[in-house]
Give the backbone structure.
Amino acid sequence: MKPLKRFSPFHENVLVADLKATLAELKESNEQGAEIGEAESTIAEVEAVVKPTED
């Protein structure tokens, strides 16, 4: 797997927030399937390398 391109901490946190919002929309629409599991895995992987910043 290629290493992630590094963004500024602010942009990394915005990307994580966008991923979480998309996942929430999928869950609200009662979508089923691999997309939700993949989104949860992606968020967990990204959060493991992204350091949260204070809002």
Q: What stands out?
A: The chain has a mean pLDDT of 77. The chain has two helices and no strands.
